[in-house]
Structure formats: C-alpha cells, structure tokens
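From the methods appendix. Each design record in this collection lists the tokenized structure first, followed by the designed amino acid sequence. Records were kept in a plain field format so they could be parsed without special tools. The example shown here is representative of the layout used throughout.

RECORD:
FOLD TOKENS (379 positions):
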C-alpha cells in the first residue's frame, strides 16, 4: 500500500542532528501506516543563518534554533503548538525542560517549537591528560600558560563567549534597545578574552566547537582542556572517537560558578504551510516526550532536551555522566535576545569581536562598533 502522507524535514548536518531524526521517523512510520518522513540536512553555518521563511515553503518539519523565533512571529512561517488543543502535553514538556530550553521557543505569546536538544557551552577534558579539570578562571589561566587549553573562537563562538563572560560576572548585556553593555564592563570582558586568546594556539580562532572536539578526541597531541564549547555527547560515547572526552560544568570567574553561558540546542517546528500539520505536530510531540528522548532519540545519537533523559541512568552510563556532570551549567544558562533584528547583530557582533581577538583593532573601537551594530539591529 503506498504512503498516503509524506512529510519532508530539514535538520543540521551532524550525526547528533541527523541520525536521531532518521531513526525516530522510521519508528514513527512503523507505528503509523500510511505515513513516511524523509529528512534533508544543511551545514551547521547554514543552520544558524538560513531564514526559516525560505524553508517553511519546502518542508513540513524543521529543526531550528531559538534566536530565529523573532522572525517567525513577524513572518508567520510556523505553526503555534499552543493552538492545537494539546496544552496538557505542553505543560508537561515545560516542566521537563532542561533550563530554559523549552521557554526559548516561546515568543509573542505562543510556542513555536518543542525542545528536542539541549546545549550550552560547557567544559570538556581528556581524562588521560588531566586528572581534575579546573573550576575557577584563575586555574584555567594557569593551565593555559602551560599550553594545555583550547576552545572555539570563530566569530559566532567569540560572540557567545563575550555574552557568557558578561553574564557570569553579572554585567547587564543586551537587555534594552539603547545600550549593548556598559563601557567599563565591556572593556573588562574584552580584556579577559584577549588574555586567554593570547595563551592559546591561534588555530582556535578558526575552529568551531566540533573542530575543537575533533582535535581533542582524535589527536594524540591535543589540548587537555576546553573551558567552553557547546557540548556533544557523541564525543563522550565509547567508539565515537579515539580518545573519549569527559564533559563537566563550565568554570566561573571568581566564585561565580558556571552561570551565564548562552543556551543553545534545537527545537522541532512545523511549517504553517504544511498540508499535514496535525501529523507533523504529533510526530514532534512524540520525539520531544520523555520516553523517546531517554530511549530511541538518545540511543540513535541525539542529545536530549528533556530532563527525564538527563536524569536517566542509562543515558549517563553511556556518556561518561555527560548529563549529570553538566546539568548545573545548563540550568543556569542565559537566554539570548530573540527580537526580529537580533540575528543580524549576532553575525556582525561576532565579526567585530573576532577582529579584536585577532589583534587588528582596539578595545575602544571594538566597543564603539558593537554599540553601533546593536543599535542598528533594532531599527
């Protein structure tokens, strides 16, 4: 009997983003005869940059990240999950959220996606090279002076690191349309970033978090420790890389602990233009639910966004306690802005901070450029 309903989905090109979508779609189709789901994938950069409106006319299902929700409200591209009469399920998912993962897809009074993946910059290390990871920034600097520290600083990650430092210290950043950050506070953050960058291999300025984890996990000659990097449980699982990586909470400035890193992860969304919205939404609710998240979604390579999976003994045993070791960082992570013009600022701001870290401009010019780009994004 031929399929009567075929859904198309778009996700991101990594085993963590693609493999669980294939596995869960096959399982869903087996339970729902007459339904099939196929998935395309796009690069990590395109995942961050490609407008949702371009995808919503081609795909029923989309794996998205939350900073795009401002444009969603403006463009009407996605189905609001709170309009489906499934409020009880939404309430359960809200209670099972890791940190602000679920809330990050709520905007303008509606829920535009369901969190299926939770991530924020956490620390990682090679247990064969480092017996105990540092927890305070002074100890990170000491380790960096021994050339044993690296983390990703391509433009987008440079911007996320700036946000993370500012929030960890307690500085107000990007909270209104007038001021990006107090000038003295911004100066302090940039000074911290300049120091750690000067102590690391310059290749860090060319790497994303996957690049750093590949370096650590596949090379005998690698840094022992990375203080920040969006976590990937894949690298902590047996057989994924030559040198399995252990993840732990991010360090804090002084005694501040891991608070303030920038929440990431992904959500599953349904196109408002889909001709099979109810079936697509049903699949979305299923893969976001605790049973799938702690079962098939995780075992097929996913990194769950549901707290039940984060507390699950089997999930932790298979990932060197990734979830328990990094939970505090996730629960204290910061939700970045999501207004309609934010994505443009994120791109420009990352380039501005990156230029500074390359030593090509001054702190004062960097702060001027960040402020100008931020105000422009609100127009």
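DESIGN:
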């Amino acid at each position: 009997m031929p399929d009567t309903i075929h859904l198309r989905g778009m996700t991101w090109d990594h085993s963590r983003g693609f493999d669980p979508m294939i596995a869960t779609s096959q399982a869903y189709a087996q339970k729902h005869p007459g339904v099939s789901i196929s998935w395309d994938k796009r690069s990590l950069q395109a995942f961050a940059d490609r407008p949702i409106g371009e995808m919503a006319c081609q795909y029923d299902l989309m794996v998205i990240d939350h900073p795009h929700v401002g444009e969603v409200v403006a463009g009407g591209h996605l189905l609001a999950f709170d309009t489906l009469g499934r409020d009880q399920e939404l309430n359960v998912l809200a209670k099972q959220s890791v940190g602000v993962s679920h809330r990050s897809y709520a905007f303008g009074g509606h829920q535009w996606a369901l969190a299926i993946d939770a991530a924020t910059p956490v620390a990682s290390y090679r247990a064969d090279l480092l017996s105990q990871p540092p927890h305070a920034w002074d100890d990170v600097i000491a380790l960096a002076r021994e050339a044993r520290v690296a983390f990703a600083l391509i433009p987008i990650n440079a911007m996320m690191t700036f946000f993370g430092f500012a929030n960890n210290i307690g500085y107000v950043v990007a909270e209104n349309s007038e001021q990006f950050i107090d000038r003295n506070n911004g100066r302090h953050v940039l000074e911290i970033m300049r120091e750690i960058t000067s102590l690391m291999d310059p290749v860090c300025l060319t790497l994303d978090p996957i690049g750093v984890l590949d370096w650590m996990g596949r090379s005998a000659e690698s840094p022992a420790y990375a203080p920040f990097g969006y976590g990937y449980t894949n690298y902590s699982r047996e057989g994924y890389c030559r040198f399995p990586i252990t993840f732990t909470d991010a360090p804090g400035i002084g005694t501040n602990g891991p608070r303030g890193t920038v929440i990431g992860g992904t959500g599953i969304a349904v196109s408002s233009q889909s001709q099979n919205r109810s079936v697509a939404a049903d699949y979305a609710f299923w893969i976001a639910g605790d049973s799938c998240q702690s079962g098939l979604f995780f075992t097929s390579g996913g990194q769950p966004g549901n707290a039940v999976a984060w507390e699950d003994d089997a999930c932790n045993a298979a990932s060197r306690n990734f979830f328990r070791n990094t939970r505090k960082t996730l629960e204290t992570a910061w939700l970045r802005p999501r207004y309609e013009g934010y994505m443009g600022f994120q791109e420009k701001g990352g380039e501005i901070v990156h230029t500074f870290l390359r030593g090509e401009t001054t702190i004062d010019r960097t702060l001027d450029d960040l402020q100008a780009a931020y105000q422009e994004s609100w127009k």
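APPENDIX NOTE: The longest strand covers residues 5-12.
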